Structures are given as C-alpha cells and as structure tokens.
Amino acid sequence: MATILQHGNLIDGLAAEPLADSLVIYEGEKVLYAGPWRPEEAAKYPGAEVRDVTGKTVMPGLIDVHVHLTLYGKPSSVMDFLVDSATYTALKAADCARKLLEAGFTTVRAMGDKASADFAVKRAINEGMILGPRLLTSGKGISITGGHGDFVPGDVELDTIGETCDGVDQVRRAVRDRLKNNADNIKLMATGGGNSPGPGTVSQLSEEEMRVAVEEAANRGVLTAAHCIGTDGIKRAIRAGVRTIEHGSFIDDEGIEMMLRGEHYLVPTLCAFRTIKHGPEGGVPDYVLEKIQYFATAHYTGLEKAYRAGVRIVCGTDTGTPFNYHGEGAEELELYTKVGMSPMEAIKTATSMAAECLRQGDVGVLAEGKTADLLIVDGDPVADIAVLQDKGKIEVIHNGKKVERR
Ligand SMILES: [Zn+2]
After folding, report:
1. How far is the CA of 363 from the centre of ligand 1 (A)?
2. CA 68 to ligand 1 centroid distance, Å
3. Interval between CA 318 and ligand 1 midpoint (Å)
4. Which domains does the chain have, with CATH numbers?
5. Is the pTM of this model over 0.85?
6. How far is CA 145 from CA 189, 204, 211, in A?
7. pLDDT of 288-305, one tens digit each?
C-alpha cells in the first residue's frame, strides 16, 4: 500500500529552496513521486494511507560518510577498542548502528573495523536480523608500522586500530583481503592523528603505497578514503587519487587547488572536536588534548577556505571517537553553518553530495525511483538546522518502513 505525505515542505536534496505544499508518495522501498502537490498524482493511489504533514518538512534520510561502529563515543572508547573482546565489539557495533538509524542517518560508511564486526553487522542488517542503516564497510584502516593505526607496543598483546602494512606488496594484499570480504571502501592512514601517540601532522603511507591501494580498489569500483591531518600527507593522498580526504586539518591553498582539479571530497569531521570541550574533565590523555587543540585552529581555517574555493564537502562526523556519541551526528551540519554554509548547503553535504561521493545513486535525493529513505521533521531545518538534532521531532522512514525507536 502506498503512503501519501501531503502539504508539507519538501527538501528534495537538490533544489536550492524548499518546496511548499508538496506531495511525496512512496510504496514498498521506492519513492513514486516527490514534487508539488497535484491532486491527479495522489488520485493514482486510491487505497493509499494519506497523511497531512502541514507544518512539517519531508527530506532525504541523512548520510554520514565517516563513522566508527567499533568505537562508541565514551571518553575511553579508543582504549576500549583495544581491549574489548571480538564478541562484545560486534554487539557494540550493532547497537551503534541502530542508534545512527534512530537519529535519522539512513546511510553510513564505517571507517575502522575490529574483528570483522562491521562486516558482520552489515550482513545482519541486510538479512533483517537487526535494525541499522545502509552500511558501507572498510575493514580495518591500513597503516604503516608505528603509524596512526599501529600504536600498541610490540611486546603488548592487544588488537590494534589498523592493519600494519609496509611497502606496496603488503598494501596490495591488505586491499585484496578487504575486497574478498566485500568491503565498500578502503581506508588509508596517510598521516598521524589525534588519538594515537606521536606527531599528528607527520606523513605516513607513501604516495606509491596509496596509489596501489587506489588502483586495486578501482578494479572493483570500490571507494578510497585517507585519514589526513598534515599538509604533505593530504597532497600525497590527492596525488595518489584517493577519493575522500578525511579531516584535512592542515590543507593549504595548493592542496585546495589539487582537490578542485580532480574528483575529491573533503570530510570535515567537526564533531570530533568535542574532545576540546569535554576532554579536560573527561580523562582524555594530555597529549591527545594538546594535539587536537593544535589541529583545531588550522582545521577551521582550512575548511573555510576550501568551502569558499568550491571544494566538494560531505558530512562525516567521526562518530565513535571520544565524546562523539552515536545519534548526535546531526550537530555536524549546524557546525558547517558556522564556517559560512547556508543551512541548505549543509543539508546537501549529508544528502545529495554525500550520495554522489559514495556512489549511492539510489539515496540522498527524493525523486521518483529513489529509495524511500526519508525524514519527516516537525519543523523547518532551513530556518533552524538544529531541529535535526532533536530526535523527538524526527520520524525516520528507512526502505519505506517507519523506524520504531527503542
Ligand atoms: Zn575516524
């Protein structure tokens, strides 16, 4: 039976302005119509459930291109990742996935696995065992020895954040291993980072190593992403052809130019800076706080420049890192308005632009033939983007079915 949503405002993910007095019709998993209210369109579905959504906004489900299901947002989440059992990690990841969906994120890309939990959660979601968003997986990040994904001393027996690879052959094997597990994306650690010891800005994987990863991934049409803090690592990743530059803190004018010349997307992950606000009392190690504070100024300056220059920016939150809880990711869009984006531009980073970035042509836009992933928002996100953070005001429809919150 079709569902008709009539007389609401429509944000379709593409148009520059919302459309007043709209009509959205969906049936099963597909959108049949999204556009101006036309009685003759509604009349095509005589048995439909008709809902008057006057005063509400209908918009595409949100997309987050950078989440962690195996980190769960607690101040200790990085240490817990290292010591939690594989079984517990899988259960944790399933819970995180459900929280993301309940908050309106209907498509997410997971960016750092442990014990194949992300692959298992994806399978369980697709088989209908558990509730979660459309999930794109990466497996573990690929890191050099001693890099951002390898910071447990060699004589300590703990799982590490990434898989350690040195040289093109090891990188190639690691990528093929992920492809064997049907990964949707390859995550590369191009530089140091905030939550690992050592300088954050230093370059790690070589351009050659990343190029091999990009080539192997491209053979199977799989995406690539690089964790990048430092200026040189950002440029290495771009030159290697990596599609998404994650964080991009110290991007400079040349890096911005390079991104504009190719098919690259910047993923700002501003929610990760919540550590600065909550970290001092939250038990975050001093070296992490110092580094993240050092990144922040450059990060905001670089992002603002990149935005003004026209770099494609897509919503990624780094959800799961300390103080970055699942279900609170919509704040990322409000933060984008603080670097100059209009609310509608910010919404597009998490809808049409993110879908284009992830090559998920069925989502991110409300139009005939697209997947019925949509939000019915009690309010107007263009007037007040913060309304998207209020789960009490958002009804989530995923694959044409209402998501029941726990
Ligand atoms: Zn991350």
Report:
1. 23
2. 6
3. 5
4. 3-60+365-402 (2.30.40.10), 62-329 (3.20.20.140)
5. yes
6. 11, 9, 18
7. 888 889 999 999 999 999
